[in-house]
Amino acid sequence: MDNSTITAIFWDVGGVLLTNAWDREQRDRALQKFGLDRVEFDDRHDMLVSSLERGKIGIDEYLERTIFYRQRNFSLQAFKEFVYSLSQPNAEVLQLARELGRSQRYLMSTINNESKDLNQYRIQTFGLNQIFSLFVSSCFVGLRKPEDGIYRLALEITQKAPQQCCFVDDRPLNLDSASRLGMHVIRMENAGQLQREFKSLGIGT
């Protein structure tokens, strides 16, 4: 096999396959719904988000320290349920991923930053474990994009050469690190554009 033939596709989850899990837009919606002070929350969030996404703390501890450190007129469970409800599928991109997975031509994996609780919820709710055989999630490996280490780990685990891999993300900074290692990269804008760029790289079912 030509060493430059793409045999592995690594996907971001939030912003590609699904909406983001707990990014700025989702946090803003939650703060607005529950009438929380943005500055107060952001200060606490900034200190804890790395621990949350690296799997060092769970969502309950994170929320207890960012929101429920004092009495609220809503419950922890109600807040969590709202957070989970913000996750929605990008149906066209999910279908494209399913088709590529069914072709059995590619190793299908994610490289994503998410907390353990939300990551597992999203994997199960949207059937990602039926598409992907590997989840290189920040909460499982203790590394976050755009750190080079998370991409190097994905290559080491899969034993793929960088030029055999394509990484799809919606953020240029995350793509830069993968590109520096020699991986093919695509900035995802929409399903049609993604499919065209796959085709240009010889990726298809």
Q: Would you mind describing this structure in some detail?
A:
With 205 residues, the chain is of the alpha/beta class. It has two domains: 8-20 and 88-200, Rossmann fold (3-Layer(aba) Sandwich), CATH 3.40.50; 24-85, DNA polymerase, domain 1. It is 50% helix and 11% strand. A five-stranded parallel sheet has the order 3-2-1-4-5, sandwiched between helices. The longest helix is centred in the first third of the chain and has 16 residues, at 38-53. The radius of gyration is 18 Å and the shape is elongated.
Furnish the topology, listing elements before pairings:
Blueprint: E1 8-11, H1 24-34, H2 38-53, H3 59-66, H4 76-85, H5 91-103, E2 107-112, H6 116-125, E3 134-137, H7 138-141, H8 148-158, E4 165-169, H9 172-180, E5 184-187, H10 191-200
Parallel strand pairs: 1-2, 1-4, 2-3, 4-5
Helix pairs in contact: 2-3
How big a fraction of the residues is strand? 5-15%
CATH architecture of the largest domain: 3-Layer(aba) Sandwich
Helical coverage, percent range: 40-55%
CATH topology grouping of the largest domain: Rossmann fold
CATH class of the largest domain: Alpha Beta
Which spans of ≥5 residues are poorly predicted at pLDDT below 50?
Answer: none
Please work out how many helical segments DSSP would assign.
10
Q: Tell me about the biggest sheet?
A: 5 strands, parallel
Q: Averaged pLDDT, please?
A: 97
CATH evolutionary superfamily of the largest domain:
HAD superfamily/HAD-like
Structural class, by secondary structure, is alpha/beta
How widely separated are the two ends?
A: 18 Å
Question: How are the strands of the biggest sheet laid out side by side?
Answer: 3-2-1-4-5
Which radius of gyration do the C-alpha atoms yield? 18 Å
Number of strands: 5
When the domains are counted, the total is 2
Which series of helices and strands comes N to C? Answer: EHHHHHEHEHHEHEH
